[in-house]
């Protein structure tokens, strides 16, 4: 049995390697979970029997009193699809499902019956003590509560909830088949399912799930047979981020985030935009130069900056925010608030802000995670050790492998955010250029974004695909390299850093000079498209 398991895991590795375009380094799948299942970080894996599926009878006898790990697929193509998903998540949580992970969000072309609106698809991973048929009954009740009625098979529906996997069991009854019988032919099911897995092979539950796929390379091979990552971004299936009333395909082009600091002490433009009129003028300039997002900050996060209270931050922010919402130039653009305070984030979103940019990743005010979940807006989690007053301490600058450690620490933020109720499809990651890093670390991170994604994929393929925001603009390390003491003179150096970042996988660039940033993004996007045409 162990020999068979080890051989199967080794077969899965090249498939996973191919899935990431050959980016995976040499890594041996561990079979330690088969020998010592309690080592797995997954709570339900101790009940798994790797590579031996249990029948429904066994599941009924053994599973009712123990948490079973499950995967539930979600689909919708009627009404406000994103709000429907949000409601479905809340109803599942109140019906005996503890959600631990989310897939990304996919907009997909309809299958089977093609003359209908496009679907949104995703999936969740969680645990339940409900037996499979009790779970099915609960999901049907949720579908009915949301408004689903009987209709054309494969036709339009406000919500569709399907049990893809239940523990390590195979179920074949009159009302339920698990694993879902059509997983192998549905990209809109396999893409979210694969998001919920990691490529390390260290999770016993995932190992048993792969064995249920009836494919030597597991679900990775099934996904690759349908085209895998090569079909993402086509008309058939797109990975999207819900912002405001839009679904952004962040891989279609690089987004430019323009910086608007309302502080007297920011390192680059402190004191320039404290007055409302000056701030509005700068916002208009950033938009005219090509900014897609305006990131408004009222608290300086430069090294050793004095921390304001939430009330002090709001006093600076609100007058500008209220006025900027009125300008016609904001039509089709997005507003982001740069804050680590839950209270500030809440007030800003109530006044029209579309996303939260938290330099602390929820570490300075843990309440912000719950608030972001309730507000249902995108949340940027940045990598930083300590706070602005301690981030450049000798202790916080120690790395053995900066990309590997940044990936691990960012993934810890992702897990906290998801467990707080923020779906993965609303999370953006920022590796924190200039925060808790020496110059050499900043350069390694910019050139190592693919390495960060690859490292994260070992834990979660879904997390490895979320948008990456990069903010090297006018930072000190650029001044050191180019001998430019004045931050304003670092815009050309910023273009070089931004270009390297985009070509290595950044999806959003945060810049002070939006014209330069937008031009750099356009050239990089053209280079990417040229490479795709060649391929």
TrEMBL record:
<dbReference type="GO" id="GO:0016301">
    <property type="term" value="F:kinase activity"/>
</dbReference>
<dbReference type="GO" id="GO:0004156">
    <property type="term" value="F:dihydropteroate synthase activity"/>
</dbReference>
<dbReference type="Pfam" id="PF01288">
    <property type="entry name" value="HPPK"/>
</dbReference>
<protein>
    <recommendedName>
        <fullName>Pterin-binding domain-containing protein</fullName>
    </recommendedName>
</protein>
<keyword id="KW-0460">Magnesium</keyword>
<keyword id="KW-0418">Kinase</keyword>
<dbReference type="GO" id="GO:0046656">
    <property type="term" value="P:folic acid biosynthetic process"/>
</dbReference>
<feature type="domain" description="Pterin-binding">
    <location>
        <begin position="254"/>
        <end position="522"/>
    </location>
</feature>
<dbReference type="Pfam" id="PF00809">
    <property type="entry name" value="Pterin_bind"/>
</dbReference>
<keyword id="KW-0511">Multifunctional enzyme</keyword>
<dbReference type="InterPro" id="IPR011005">
    <property type="entry name" value="Dihydropteroate_synth-like_sf"/>
</dbReference>
<dbReference type="GO" id="GO:0005524">
    <property type="term" value="F:ATP binding"/>
</dbReference>
<dbReference type="InterPro" id="IPR000489">
    <property type="entry name" value="Pterin-binding_dom"/>
</dbReference>
<comment type="pathway">
    <text>Cofactor biosynthesis; tetrahydrofolate biosynthesis; 2-amino-4-hydroxy-6-hydroxymethyl-7,8-dihydropteridine diphosphate from 7,8-dihydroneopterin triphosphate: step 4/4.</text>
</comment>
<dbReference type="InterPro" id="IPR000550">
    <property type="entry name" value="Hppk"/>
</dbReference>
<keyword id="KW-0289">Folate biosynthesis</keyword>
<dbReference type="InterPro" id="IPR045031">
    <property type="entry name" value="DHP_synth-like"/>
</dbReference>
<keyword id="KW-0547">Nucleotide-binding</keyword>
<keyword id="KW-0479">Metal-binding</keyword>
<dbReference type="GO" id="GO:0046872">
    <property type="term" value="F:metal ion binding"/>
</dbReference>
<keyword id="KW-0808">Transferase</keyword>
<comment type="pathway">
    <text>Cofactor biosynthesis; tetrahydrofolate biosynthesis; 7,8-dihydrofolate from 2-amino-4-hydroxy-6-hydroxymethyl-7,8-dihydropteridine diphosphate and 4-aminobenzoate: step 1/2.</text>
</comment>
<comment type="similarity">
    <text>In the N-terminal section; belongs to the HPPK family.</text>
</comment>
<comment type="similarity">
    <text>In the C-terminal section; belongs to the DHPS family.</text>
</comment>
<dbReference type="InterPro" id="IPR006390">
    <property type="entry name" value="DHP_synth_dom"/>
</dbReference>
<dbReference type="InterPro" id="IPR035907">
    <property type="entry name" value="Hppk_sf"/>
</dbReference>
<dbReference type="GO" id="GO:0003848">
    <property type="term" value="F:2-amino-4-hydroxy-6-hydroxymethyldihydropteridine diphosphokinase activity"/>
</dbReference>
<keyword id="KW-0067">ATP-binding</keyword>
<dbReference type="GO" id="GO:0005737">
    <property type="term" value="C:cytoplasm"/>
</dbReference>
């Amino acid at each position: 049995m162990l020999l068979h398991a080890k051989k199967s895991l080794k077969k899965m590795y090249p498939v996973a390697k191919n899935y990431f375009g050959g980016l995976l380094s040499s890594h041996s799948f561990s079979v330690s979970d088969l020998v010592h299942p309690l080592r797995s970080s997954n709570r339900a894996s101790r009940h798994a029997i790797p590579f031996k599926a249990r029948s429904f009878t066994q599941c009924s006898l053994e599973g009712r009193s123990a948490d079973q790990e499950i995967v539930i697929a979600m689909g919708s193509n009627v009404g406000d699809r994103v709000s429907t998903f949000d409601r479905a998540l809340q109803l599942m949580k109140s019906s005996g499902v503890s959600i631990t992970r989310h897939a990304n969000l996919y907009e997909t072309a309809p299958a089977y019956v093609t003359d209908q609106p496009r679907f949104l698809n995703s999936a969740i991973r969680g645990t339940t003590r409900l037996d499979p048929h009790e779970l099915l009954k609960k999901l049907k009740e949720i579908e009915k509560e949301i408004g689903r009625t009987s209709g054309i098979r494969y036709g339009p529906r406000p919500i569709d909830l399907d049990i893809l996997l239940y523990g390590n069991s195979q179920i074949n009854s009159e009302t339920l088949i698990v694993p879902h019988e059509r997983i192998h032919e549905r990209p809109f099911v396999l893409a979210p399912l694969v998001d919920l897995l990691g490529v390390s092979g260290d999770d016993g539950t995932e190992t048993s799930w792969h064995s249920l796929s009836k494919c030597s390379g597991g679900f990775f091979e099934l996904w690759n047979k349908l085209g895998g990552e090569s079909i993402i971004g086509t008309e058939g299936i797109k990975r999207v981020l819900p912002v405001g009333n839009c679904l952004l395909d962040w891989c279609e082009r690089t987004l430019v985030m323009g910086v608007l600091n309302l502080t007297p002490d920011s390192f680059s433009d402190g004191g320039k935009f404290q007055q409302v009129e000056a701030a509005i003028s700068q916002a208009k300039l950033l938009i005219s130069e090509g900014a897609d997002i305006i990131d408004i900050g009222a608290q300086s996060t430069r090294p050793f900056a004095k921390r304001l209270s939430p009330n002090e931050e709001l006093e600076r922010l609100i007058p500008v925010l209220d006025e900027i919402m009125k300008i016609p130039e904001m039509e089709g653009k997005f507003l982001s608030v740069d804050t680590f305070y839950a209270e500030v984030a809440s007030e800003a979103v109530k006044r029209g802000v579309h996303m939260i940019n938290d330099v602390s990743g929820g570490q300075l005010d843990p309440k912000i995670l719950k608030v972001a979940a309730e507000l249902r807006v995108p949340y940027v989690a940045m990598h930083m050790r300590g706070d602005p007053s301690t981030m450049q301490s000798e202790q916080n600058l120690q790395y053995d492998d900066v990309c590997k450690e940044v990936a691990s620490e960012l993934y810890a933020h992702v897990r906290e955010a998801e467990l707080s109720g923020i779906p993965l499809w609303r999370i953006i990651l920022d590796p924190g250029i200039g925060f808790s890093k020496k110059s050499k670390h900043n350069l390694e991170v910019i050139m190592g974004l693919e390495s960060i994604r690859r490292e994260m994929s070992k834990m979660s393929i879904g997390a490895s695909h979320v948008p990456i925001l990069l903010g090297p603009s006018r930072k000190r390390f650029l001044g050191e390299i180019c001998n430019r003491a004045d931050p304003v003179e670092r815009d050309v150096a910023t273009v070089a850093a931004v270009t390297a970042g985009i070509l290595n996988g950044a999806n959003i660039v945060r810049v002070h000079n939006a014209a330069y940033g937008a031009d750099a993004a356009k050239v990089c996007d053209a280079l990417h498209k040229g490479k795709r045409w060649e391929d």
